[in-house]
Task: inverse folding
C-alpha cells in the first residue's frame, strides 16, 4: 500500500501581523489595486487613446489642476457650502414638518389607513419631476431648489414615521394606560421612543433622496452649487470641472452617509429600538 | 492479498493531519494530528469526541470539501481529491434546498448524474417510501417538521447511491422524541441498504446504539484515542431493549469514560 | 413555519372587507384634493398659470394627440406626441431592464462567488451609487450627446448597480451547506450557480430589480429633462419652458401614476411571491 509521505508543516501565515492580515482580509489589497488600476487606466485612455482628451476625458492631472485652480479662486468652497446649505435647510424643513406630521397620522389607525395611499403617491412623484411646475411658480430661484428638497424629504420621512408609529405594539400603550398614564405621558414614553428608529431610518432615506434632489435642482434651477457647477461646466466644455464636481459629489455623499447618517441610524435603533435588529 | 483487502475496506484514512489559519486572527490552528482509521464494507462506524476536537474538520476532509495536504484518504481505493458522488453527506441541518419539493430534493443527485426522468421517478419513489415520506412528495421543506427534513436529507444521500455515507451529527437539531425514532429508523435503513456509514456525533448513547465500532477522538489536536467494538446484533437494536442489554450499556459506559477523560482534561 | 403559512392564508381570505375599507378610506384624501383643486378653479384663488383647471389638464391629452389614430399610437406616428413620449420613456425602461438586469445578476453572482472580485467591485459600486444617477448627466452628454444614449446610460447606471449589489448580497446570504450538499451529490460549478445561488438569491434579486426600477425611473425623468429629446421628462421640461402648465401637470401626474401602477401591480406582488416561496424559508424561526 502506498502512503503519501508527510511534507513539512504548512507555513504559518501572518502570525506576526494580525493587523496586516485583517487589512488584507477586508479587501484592502483589492481596493488599492482598483484605485491604482483605475487611475492608470484613466491616464492611459486620456493620454493615449482618446482623441480630444480635454473635451472627452481630461487626465487625472488636469482634474487635480482644475480643482487647485478653483480652490485658489475660492469658487470651490463657495459652491460646496452653497450645496450643503441648501441640503441642510431643505432637509431641516422637511424633517421638521414630516416627523410631527407622520406621528400625528400614525396615532390613529383610521387616519393612518386614510393617508397611507396618498403619502405613497406623493412619494412616488419624485421632487425632480415636480421641478418644472415649481419653476413656473417661482422661476430659477433659491426658493425653487429648497422647495424641491423639502418635498423630496417630506414624504419618505412622514411615510416612515407613520409606519413606525403604527407598528408600536398596542401592548406597550395599554400597559401604560393601566398604570394610569395620561395621553401626554404615553406620547412621551411610548410613541416617541417607539418611533425613533423609524424616524432615523426615514431621515437617512429622506436626506439621501434630498441629496439627489439638490444636485438635480441646482442643475435646472440653482445658482453656484455643485450641481450647477457640473451643468454649466459641461455647457462651456470644461469637462475637467465636470469630473471634479462628480467626484466631489460622490465623496461628500459617502462621507455624509457612512460617517454621519448610518452611524446615527444604527445608534438610534440600537438604543431605542423596541424590536432589536 | 491487497486487492481483497482494498475491496473490503471502503474508507481508509492514513496519517491525516490538518492545520489551518484562523479566519480573523490568522493564528495557526492544529485540528487533526496523524489520524488513522479504516471502515469496512457495510460497517456502521461512529466517531465521538469532545466538541472542537476536529470531528467536523475530519468530515469535511473526507467529503472533499476541505483539501488535505498531509496524509491520505481513500474511498474504494481512490484518493479523495474533492467532493464527489462516491461519498454522500448528511449535514446537521438546513441542507436540503428550500426551493425544491421533497421529490426533487431526493432525486437531486440522480438529476445531476443525468438519469432520465421516468427512471429517476421510480428510484425516488423507492426512497420516499423507505424513509416513510409517502404522500409528502410535493411538499416544500418549510412545510415539513425538523425530523421530516432530516428524512429527506437521508433519502437524498441514499438515492445517489454513494459508496460511503458520511453523517455529521444529523440528529443534533431535532427534539429528543424525534431523535429516538430517527435513530431506530436509521438503524433499520442501514440494515436494509447495507451501506458503509461514518457517523459523527457528540452523543455517546447515539454512538453506542448505532455503531458497530466507535472511534473516540481526543480534544484538539484531534487524534484517535481508542476504538470500542459494540457487540450487539444490529437487528436487535431497539431503544426499549437496548437500555437493559449489557452489550449496549457496557459499550456505552466505556465510551463515556473515555470521552469524559478528554472533557475533564479540558477543564483542568 | 406552517403556522405562519396558515395565518397568511387566513389573512388573505379575510382581507377582502378590510381591503375594501382601506381603498375607501384611502380615496378620501385624493377626492378632497381633487375637490380643492376644482374649488380653486371655480373661485379663482390661484391663477390658471400656476394651477391649471383640472379640465385643461384632461384636454391637454387631446391637444397633444391631435390627428393621431389608434394605429398611429402603435406606429409612434409624429402626430401622437403624448403617447410617443410615454412609449419612449417606457421603451428605455424596458431596454434598460433587458440589458441591466442580466448584467447585474451575472456579475453579482460572480462577485458573490469570489471574494477577490467582490472586494474589487464593491468600492467602485459604492462610489458609482454615491455619484447619484443625475450627476452623471453632464458627462454623459459630453460622451454621447443629447438623446437616447445619454438617457439610457443614466438608467442603466442606476439599474445595474442596484441589481448587482442585491444579487451579491443574496448570493452571500445563501447558506454554505446548500452549496456543500450539491457538491457532495456530484454537482459542478454550473449546478451550484443555477440550482443554489440563483434560486437562493432570487428574493434579493427581485428586491434589487424593484429598487432599480424605482430609482431608475426617477433618474430617467431627470435625465430626459436635461439630456434627452424625447420622453415624459423631456415633455414636461419643454412644456414648462413654454408655460404650458396644463401639459406639465399632465406629465407629472402620469409619471407618478405609471410608477405606482408598475410598483403595486407588478413589482410588489412579485417580491412578495418570491419571498414567500423561497426567502422566508431558511430564516430560523
Result:
Amino acid at each position: 500500500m502506498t502512503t503519501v509521505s508527510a511534507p513539512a508543516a504548512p507555513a504559518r501565515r501572518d502570525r506576526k501581523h494580525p493587523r496586516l492580515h485583517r487589512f488584507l482580509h477586508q479587501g484592502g489589497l483589492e481596493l488599492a489595486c482598483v484605485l491604482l488600476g483605475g487611475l492608470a487606466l484613466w491616464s492611459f485612455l486620456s493620454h493615449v487613446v482618446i482623441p480630444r482628451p480635454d473635451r472627452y476625458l481630461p487626465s487625472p492631472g488636469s482634474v487635480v489642476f482644475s480643482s487647485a485652480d478653483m480652490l485658489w479662486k475660492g469658487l470651490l468652497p463657495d459652491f460646496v457650502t452653497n450645496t450643503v446649505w441648501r441640503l441642510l435647510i431643505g432637509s431641516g424643513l422637511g424633517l421638521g414638518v414630516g416627523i410631527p406630521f407622520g406621528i400625528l397620522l400614525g396615532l390613529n389607525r383610521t387616519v393612518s389607513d386614510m393617508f397611507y395611499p396618498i403619502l405613497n403617491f406623493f412619494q412616488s412623484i419624485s421632487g425632480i419631476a415636480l421641478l418644472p411646475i415649481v419653476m413656473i411658480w417661482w422661476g430659477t430661484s433659491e426658493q425653487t431648489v429648497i422647495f424641491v428638497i423639502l418635498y423630496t424629504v417630506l414624504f419618505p420621512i412622514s411615510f416612515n414615521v407613520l409606519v413606525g408609529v403604527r407598528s408600536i405594539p398596542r401592548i406597550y400603550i395599554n400597559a401604560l394606560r393601566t398604570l394610569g398614564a395620561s395621553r401626554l405621558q404615553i406620547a412621551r414614553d411610548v410613541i416617541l421612543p417607539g418611533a425613533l428608529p423609524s424616524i432615523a431610518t426615514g431621515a437617512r432615506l429622506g436626506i439621501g433622496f434630498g441629496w439627489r434632489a439638490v444636485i438635480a435642482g441646482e442643475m435646472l434651477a440653482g445658482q453656484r452649487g455643485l450641481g450647477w457647477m457640473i451643468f454649466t461646466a459641461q455647457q462651456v466644455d470644461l469637462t475637467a470641472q465636470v469630473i471634479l464636481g462628480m467626484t466631489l459629489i460622490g465623496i461628500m455623499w459617502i462621507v455624509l452617509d457612512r460617517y454621519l447618517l448610518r452611524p446615527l441610524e444604527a445608534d438610534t435603533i440600537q438604543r431605542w429600538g423596541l424590536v432589536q435588529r | 492479498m491487497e486487492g481483497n483487502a482494498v475491496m473490503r475496506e471502503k474508507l481508509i484514512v492514513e496519517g491525516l493531519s490538518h492545520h489551518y489559519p484562523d479566519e480573523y486572527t490568522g493564528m495557526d490552528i492544529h485540528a487533526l494530528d496523524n489520524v488513522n482509521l479504516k471502515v469496512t464494507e457495510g460497517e456502521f462506524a461512529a466517531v465521538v469526541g469532545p466538541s472542537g476536537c476536529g470531528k467536523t474538520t475530519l468530515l469535511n476532509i473526507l467529503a472533499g470539501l476541505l483539501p488535505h495536504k498531509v496524509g491520505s484518504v481513500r474511498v474504494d481505493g481512490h484518493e479523495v481529491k474533492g467532493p464527489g458522488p462516491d461519498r454522500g453527506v448528511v449535514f446537521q441541518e438546513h441542507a436540503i434546498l428550500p426551493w425544491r419539493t421533497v421529490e426533487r430534493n431526493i432525486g437531486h443527485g440522480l438529476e445531476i448524474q443525468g438519469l432520465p426522468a421516468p427512471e429517476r421517478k421510480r428510484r425516488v419513489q423507492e426512497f420516499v417510501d423507505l424513509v416513510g415520506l409517502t404522500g409528502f412528495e410535493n411538499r416544500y421543506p418549510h412545510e415539513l417538521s425538523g425530523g421530516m427534513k432530516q428524512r429527506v436529507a437521508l433519502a437524498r444521500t441514499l438515492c445517489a447511491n454513494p459508496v460511503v455515507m458520511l453523517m455529521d451529527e444529523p440528529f443534533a437539531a431535532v427534539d429528543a422524541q424525534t431523535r429516538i425514532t430517527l435513530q431506530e429508523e436509521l438503524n433499520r435503513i442501514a440494515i436494509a441498504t447495507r451501506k458503509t456509514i461514518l457517523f459523527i456525533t457528540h452523543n455517546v448513547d447515539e454512538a453506542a446504539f448505532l455503531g458497530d465500532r466507535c472511534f473516540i477522538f481526543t480534544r484538539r489536536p484531534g487524534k484517535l484515542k481508542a476504538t470500542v467494538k459494540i457487540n450487539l446484533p444490529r437487528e436487535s437494536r431497539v431503544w426499549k431493549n437496548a437500555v437493559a442489554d449489557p452489550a449496549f450499556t457496557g459499550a456505552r459506559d466505556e465510551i463515556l469514560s473515555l470521552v469524559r477523560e478528554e472533557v475533564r482534561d479540558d477543564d483542568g | 413555519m406552517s403556522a405562519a403559512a396558515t395565518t397568511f392564508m387566513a389573512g388573505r381570505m379575510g382581507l377582502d372587507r378590510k381591503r375594501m375599507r382601506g381603498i375607501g378610506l384611502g380615496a378620501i384624501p385624493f377626492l378632497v384634493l381633487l375637490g380643492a383643486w376644482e374649488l380653486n378653479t371655480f373661485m379663482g384663488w390661484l391663477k390658471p398659470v400656476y394651477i391649471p383647471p383640472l379640465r385643461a389638464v384632461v384636454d391637454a391629452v387631446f391637444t397633444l394627440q391631435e390627428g393621431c389614430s389608434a394605429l398611429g399610437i402603435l406606429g409612434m406616428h409624429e402626430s401622437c406626441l403624448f403617447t410617443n413620449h410615454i412609449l419612449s420613456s417606457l421603451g428605455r425602461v424596458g431596454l434598460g431592464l433587458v440589458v441591466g438586469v442580466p448584467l447585474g445578476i451575472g456579475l453579482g453572482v460572480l462577485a458573490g462567488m469570489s471574494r477577490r472580485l467582490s472586494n474589487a467591485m464593491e468600492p467602485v459600486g459604492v462610489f458609482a451609487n454615491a455619484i447619484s444617477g443625475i450627476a452623471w448627466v453632464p458627462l454623459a452628454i459630453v460622451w454621447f450627446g443629447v438623446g437616447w444614449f445619454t438617457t439610457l446610460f443614466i438608467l442603466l447606471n442606476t439599474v445595474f448597480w442596484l441589481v448587482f449589489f442585491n444579487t451579491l448580497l443574496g448570493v452571500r446570504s445563501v447558506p454554505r451547506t446548500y452549496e456543500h450538499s450539491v457538491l457532495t451529490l456530484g454537482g459542478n460549478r454550473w449546478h451550484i450557480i443555477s440550482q443554489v445561488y440563483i434560486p437562493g438569491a432570487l428574493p434579493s434579486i427581485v428586491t434589487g430589480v424593484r429598487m432599480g426600477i424605482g430609482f431608475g425611473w426617477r433618474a430617467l425623468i431627470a435625465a430626459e429633462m436635461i439630456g434627452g429629446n424625447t420622453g415624459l421628462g423631456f415633455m414636461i421640461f419643454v412644456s414648462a419652458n413654454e408655460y404650458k402648465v396644463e401639459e406639465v401637470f399632465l406629465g407629472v401626474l402620469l409619471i407618478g401614476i405609471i410608477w405606482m401602477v408598475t410598483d403595486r401591480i407588478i413589482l410588489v406582488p412579485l417580491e412578495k411571491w418570491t419571498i414567500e416561496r423561497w426567502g422566508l424559508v431558511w430564516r430560523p424561526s
Remarks:
- The domain at 63-272 of chain A is CATH 1.10.3720.10 (MetI-like fold).
- Residues 34 and 57 of chain A are 19 Å apart (CA to CA).
- Chain A touches chain C through 57 residues (CB under 8 Å).
